[in-house]
Amino acid sequence: MSILVTGGAGFIGGNFVLDWLGVFDELVITLDKLTYAGNCETLVSLAEDERHIFIQGDIGDAECISQLLARYRPRAIVHFAAESHVDRSIHDPEAFIQTNIVGTFCLLEAARTFWNSLEGEAKADFRFLHVSTDEVYGSLAKGAAAFTENNRYEPNSPYSASKAASDHIVRACHHTYGLPVLTTNCSNNYGPYQFPEKLIPLTIVNALAGRPLPVYGDGQQIRDWLYVKDHCSAIRRVLEAGRVGEVYNIGGWNEKPNIDIVHAVCDILDELRARADGVSYREQITFVTDRPGHDRRYAIDARKIARELGWKPAETIANGIRKTVQWYLDNPQWIANVQSGAYREWVEKNYSDRAEKPAV
Q1: Residue 113: CB atoms within 10 Å
Q2: Most CB atoms within 10 A, among 11, 23, 125, 274?
């Protein structure tokens, strides 16, 4: 028995592979293209583990996927592989179309061919689990009800539009061809191994380096924050008992404005790794020009997964952020190794032309 995990060297995928093998002895085949956010060092603890096989490859490579499925005959595909950063999608939307839409289509076609070759229990038990995002639902007004699985799709960025398209393709593949799919739409993840272009790790890394802590606009964009290990446990539960063809929203029940998250990170750093001059890291906060089309609020209603599958997040936002900050403090070499020239060029490209103003 085995499972195939696409994007398994990325942030959420890597955490999922590590957590899965911490619970099960089942063989995991990790497929990752190793673009900027894919990092084999996330999986270095599995280098000698016979339960794990890593393969560098592209979900858009139909021949590669078909060969993997024929060789390892997995009972499930857990599909994380995606371009996933909104700012990058604004600068380079084509990459998001190719990976998130075309790549997902290629993966589905290979999975459908493989599934049709199965018989009996193997065919009945096979699952294709597609990991998506709450951003497909668009932006919520303050006080509006949180997103449920029945909300209409209103994506506002090239990233969320590409993920919305992939969600629809997955749904169509189930309803047209019968492929046994499951879809999850998660809120903002945070935790260990996150690439330092996202808010929390960027704040940690810049704070420790004495650089400005960029906050878009007024910092009042609200997100539902989900600790990555809670997300992994939810996916395991959906794969185990989710109803075929269904969508499950996964959230942390932790709505917080971005500026509150930055303040929390600064306060924890003040406690655990104080600046030599005794000044709070909050002094490094700099408000910058907001990103185009920035959604104001996301919020996930996760009652369906709680009701049907008995899953709820275990981590509080306060404890989760503290664990995350401590992990980055404990792993400076991991941070150094992912901050390549390409990463530095991206940070320069994204933030250099944004007018700065001091924190208030």
Answers
A1: 14
A2: 11
Q: In what order do the strands lie in the sheet with 27-32?
A: 52-56, 27-32, 2-6, 76-79, 127-133, 181-186, 247-250
Our answer to whether residue 353 is catalytic in this structure is no
Told to judge if 92 belongs to the known catalytic residues of this protein, a careful annotator would answer no
Tell me how far the alpha carbon of residue 84 is from its chain's centroid. Answer: 7
Which region holds residue 294: left if phi is over 0, alpha if psi is between -120 and 50, else beta?
beta
Q: Identify the CATH number of the domain in which residue 44 sits.
A: 3.40.50.720
Q: From the candidates 58, 134, 224, 295, which is the catalytic residue?
A: 134
Q: How many domains does the chain have?
A: 1
Supply the pLDDT for residue 60.
96
Q: Are 60 and 98 in contact (CB under 8 A)?
A: yes
Range of the domain at 112: 2-190+227-253+297-316
Active-site annotation holds for 159: yes
Q: Above 90 in pLDDT, residue 292?
A: no
Quote the pLDDT of residue 351.
Answer: 43
- Does some domain include residue 247? yes
Q: Does residue 138 belong to any structural domain of this protein?
A: yes
Query: Per residue in 320-357, pLDDT tens?
Result: 999 999 999 999 988 888 876 454 454 455 445 544 54
- Residue whose tokens read 């009945």: 124
Q: Per the domain annotation, does 115 fall within a domain? A: yes
